[in-house]
Write a structure and sequence with these properties.
alpha+beta; 5-stranded mixed beta sheet; 5-stranded antiparallel beta sheet; 2 helices; globular; binds adenosine-5'-triphosphate
Amino acid sequence: MAKKFHLEIIATDRVFYEGDCEHLVITAIDGLLGILYGHEPLVTSLPTGELKYMVDGKWRYAAISEGFIQVMPESSIILADTCELPEEIDIKRAEEARERAEERLRQKQSIKEYYQTQAALNRAMNRLKISQKHFK
Ligand code: ATP
């Protein structure tokens, strides 16, 4: 079994996970990043996407929205706006959020509103994808 490192995943409204982890895989801005004990230090931003982390030999999955990760050889900290387990995702709510965002994109918006709507659409699509992929 891989050597463990300490992982904290902190969302705006809760500490999502704090404990040991054997392997962490995140979608960073430039692609997938795998983290094991002893990884070189880095800080990078995280787009809305999926993360997976292994605890006691089992992968756990989560949907996160935008954030940052700080990696140190013996610990990693993720700060994200939101983070949900696949089984926590309310599919109806995500579908409604997607429909609202799609409707807003058909209307005239300022650049700022456009980026906010696009971000909301990404969050909704990500939740739907992760829920369908990992919670059947
Ligand atoms: P909505 O318009 O439905 O609120 P949103 O993308 O604007 O969606 P966020 O601001 O990303 O929502 O999240 C607000 C809070 O609600 C966070 O705690 C997040 O984890 C939770 N949340 C948002 N959408 C869902 C969902 N579909 N299922 C479960 N929790 C959700």
